[in-house]
Amino acid sequence: MNRARTRRDRGQGGIGALMGFLIGAAVLPLGTPALAQQPAAGEALDAARAAFEALPEADRKAIQDALVWTGDYNGTLDGAFGKRSFDAIRAFETRSRLTADGILTPAERDALLAAAQRQRDAAGFAVIDDRRSGIRIGVPQKVLAERSDTPGGSLFRARRGGGALTTDLIPAAAGTGLKDLYADLSAAAPGRRITYKVLRDNWFVVTGEEGAERFFTRFAATAAGLRGFTMAYPASAAATFDRLTIAITNSFEPEPETVSAATATAGAGGAASPAPTVSGGNAFTAIVLDGGRALTSAAAGACKAPTVGGKPVKIEASGGAAFVEGAFATGSAPVAWRRPEGTEQAVFILGHAATGGERRLVATPGVLKVAGDGAARLAAPVQPGMAGAPVVDRSGALVAIVGPLPQTMTLVAGIALGTTVPATIAANLADSASLPEADGTGEATTLGAAAEVWRARIVAVDCPGG
């Protein structure tokens, strides 16, 4: 308890009074269900919700994250749409002199993402693994440019005052419980005013004011002990730090699943690591064919020790694709191909994404673009692990497969943002893969229905070591 008291008395807390209304939204810990945003009546909101929810989850979260950086959104990055998201989009549209209907066109989304990236770059925002405290957190390294060690973590602060971020670990061996620390940090004291406090089973948040400074403190109970961070800054600098603190809060992970040697070393040496990147080529999706083979991206042929379900498999490259040899169970529906319609076609992409150390099936819409020379590109929020994934038309027929992904893919809030990646037209693989051509034009289907049909036909291929 003495250690917690000393920490509080240093004034290295969190954000402050006007942040209290965020509790239950932006301050939810990783894995805690976000509180539902309250919908508002009105055709405008309903239309905006329909447009927003038609987007892939990765795009929805990217929009919310961008709106945080433009200063329009103060909630969690959950991809859910309610009045808070609606008002944030309209605020951005109004300031940008766009039609304030809450619906972002593709061009307007691009403008929003670009505006947000300029703000991130200006702050030097990077998500790092802090070795001393054991947490993963975003640090605006151009704003909080000085770093030093503390007994249980790190202190990042501005060179000329104006803000400080402190990470901290109180080891389990210290015997301080979450409730004890909460009681200490939320206690009233002369010159100190608590504006919000909330305690849950495994986390708490306390916000308030102390003199001319605002603060925000968040801790979570972990197996190693109590891990958390605090943010403090002058009320006069709220225009800058309110936005930064929301971004920091949304990035906070008290128990990151993996800590790479590179980021751990950077945390120990005092340099903030760049935004996390993962290899786009160390995992693939394969389409199960008849005859004990599976079709995937040609890039998989470079994998030295491929596995499927933890068992070694053999991959052989052939032309613009690669084939995985194995005893695969095939689905009832055959894999049939159809030529793309025109130079741009709305499609579905279904693959096993590799996120957070796990593989999970992801289904997302996209646009297949075919150039005059036959080269194909795919505009979609393709995630690591989805190279080789089937690209199907709205009838469910195969029109292409996802090509090789970038060597590194930058993650924002754990998600690779929408990008353009190469694709291989299915018609070019028909002979080598022995694929029949689909009959007729086929009936339109939904993304969910397409995913159900293809679920049994796609498998995850891992490439340990890259």
UniProtKB/TrEMBL annotation:
The lineage of its organism: Bacteria, Pseudomonadati, Pseudomonadota, Alphaproteobacteria, Hyphomicrobiales. This is Peptidoglycan binding-like domain-containing protein. It comes from the Bacteria. It holds the Pfam family PG_binding_1. SUPFAM superfamilies: PGBD-like (SSF47090), Trypsin-like serine proteases (SSF50494). Residues 58-112 form the Peptidoglycan binding-like domain.
